[in-house]
Amino acid sequence: MTQELLPGTLYMMVLRTLAAGPLHGYAIARKIRDASRGGLEIEDGSLYPALNRMWVKGWLKAEWGISENNRKARFYRLTAEGRKQLEQETTDFDQLIKSIQLVMRSV
């Protein structure tokens, strides 16, 4: 069973995935799926518009290259601004999780 994403978490997961190095869109989706043990499936209709928005914001750079199966693909990598955004997103998410846990344990 796949889970629905919380609003705002797609950017954070994409940024975290790209922190390890440049990847093309399909590889990003595959890494997220694998890291979540199949619990999260990122659809193309969500991923590619998000990648474009992050590129426009200056969080990513994009270059054309050749994928592992010899196909032309756009590879994305983090910029310095993207690394800062990842830190902020991670901090905000950690605080959100702590707050939710407090509520869940209070009743």
Q: How would you describe this protein?
A:
Helix content is 57%, strand content 15%. The chain contains four helices and three strands; from the N terminus they run αβααββα. It has helices spanning 9-18, 25-35, 44-56, 80-106, and strands at residues 23-24, 60-66, 72-78. The chain has a three-stranded antiparallel sheet.
Observed structural traits:
alpha+beta, three-stranded antiparallel β-sheet
**Count of extended strands:** 3
The number of distinct structural domains comes to 1
Q: How widely separated are the two ends?
A: 28 Å
- CATH topology annotation: Arc Repressor Mutant, subunit A
CATH superfamily: Winged helix-like DNA-binding domain superfamily/Winged helix DNA-binding domain
SSE series: HEHHEEH
- Which overall shape is indicated by the principal axes computed on the Cα atoms? globular
CATH class: Mainly Alpha
CATH 2nd-level architecture: Orthogonal Bundle
In the predicted model, the low-confidence regions spanning at least 5 consecutive residues are: none
Strand order of the largest sheet: 1-3-2
Rg, Cα atoms, Å: 15 Å
Question: Major β-sheet, in short?
Answer: 3 strands, antiparallel
Average pLDDT score: 92
The helix/strand class is alpha+beta
What is the percent of helical residues?
A: 55-70%
Q: Approximately how much beta-strand content do the residues carry?
A: 5-15%
Figure out the total of helices. Answer: 4
